[in-house]
Amino acid sequence: MVNLEWYRTFKAIYKTGTLTGAADSLFISQPGVSLHLGSLEAYVGYKLFDRTGRKMIPTERGKVLFNAVSEALSKLEDVEKNFQKSTEKTTPTISVGMCFETFQTTLEQYVSTLDFNLIIDFGEYPEMLDQLDKGILDLIITPKKGTSPNILHEAFSSEQIILVGGKNVDTDGFKEVLKTKDFKEIESWLKQEKWYGTTGDMEHLFQFWLLNFGHKPNFRPNYIVPNLNSIIRCLKGGTGLAVVPDFLCKNEIENGDVKLIWEGEKKLENTLYFGCRKQTMYQNEIDHIKGLFREMMGGIQ
Description:
Residues 2-59 form the HTH lysR-type domain. Keywords: DNA-binding, Transcription, Transcription regulation. The relative contact order is 0.13. Helix content is 46%, strand content 21%. By secondary structure, it is an alpha/beta fold. The longest helix has 28 residues, at 60-87. The protein has helices at residues 4-16, 19-26, 30-44, 60-87, 100-105, 125-134, 171-179, 183-191, 203-213, 228-235, 250-255, 283-297, and strands spanning 49-52, 55-58, 93-97, 117-121, 139-142, 151-166, 196-198, 223-225, 241-245, 258-262, 268-277. The model has no long low-confidence stretch (mean pLDDT 89). A hairpin with a 2-residue loop joins strand 1 (49-52) and strand 2 (55-58).
C-alpha cells in the first residue's frame, strides 16, 4: 500500500528541483527523501525524475503523476494546517510567508524571543497570496499586491535592486566606461565579468537589465548557487558580480567586503508590503511581527 508521505516527498522534490531542497522544506533528512522517492518509484513501476547533476528533472510520467496528485495533496495540507490552528487554543500559532532571504536577514534572529508558535513558509508570491486568502497563512511579506477584497496591503519599506561585486572588481575601470554613456560598451564590460545567479528565478537580474539596456540579459551566470544570501557570501571572496536587493548586503558594503558597483542609469525599486486578512484572531501577534520588520528594515521614505 502506498504511503501518503511518499507523495508529499515527491511533490516537494518536484517543486524544489533538488533532494536537498525537498529535505529542507519537509524538515527531514536527505536520505529519507531518497528512500521515499525510491519507494514510490518502485510502487508505480517507473522513474519519476532524471538526475542531472544535483537537479531533479521530472520525467514525462513524473509530470503526469504530479498533475494527478498535486491538487489533492494541497487540499489535504490545507485541512491539516487549519485543523492544527483550530485545536491549539493555549498558545497561538502564526503562519508567515516570505522569501527565504528575507527571513534569514530579518526575522530569523528573533524567533527564539517569540511567545507564540511560528510557522514560516517559503513560496512564490502568487501562491502565498492565495494561501493568505484561504486562511492558511496569517501574514505575508511581499513586493506584489493581490486583488482579493479580503486582504489588506500595508506598505512598510522599500528595496532597491543594485549591481554589486566583490572587493577586487575593477570599479575604476567600470566608472571610465560609464562616462562614455555608450550602453553597448557598458553592457559589454559587464558581460566580461564573472556572474552569480540562483537556482530559483532570476527576476532581479532580468528587471535590472531590461530597465537599463532595453532587453533581457543574453547570458547565463557563471555560478549558480542556492539563494541570494549565498551570492553575498561568495562575493566576499573578492570577485564576481550580481544583482541583488540592497538590504541583503548593506552590512557587507559598509564593511568593505562587497562593493556597490552601479545603481543603474534608472533605479529599480520595489515597495514591500505586509499582507494580512481583514479579519483575524491573531492581531496582537501579527502586530508584533510587523514591529520587528519595521525595526530591521526601516519605513517608507
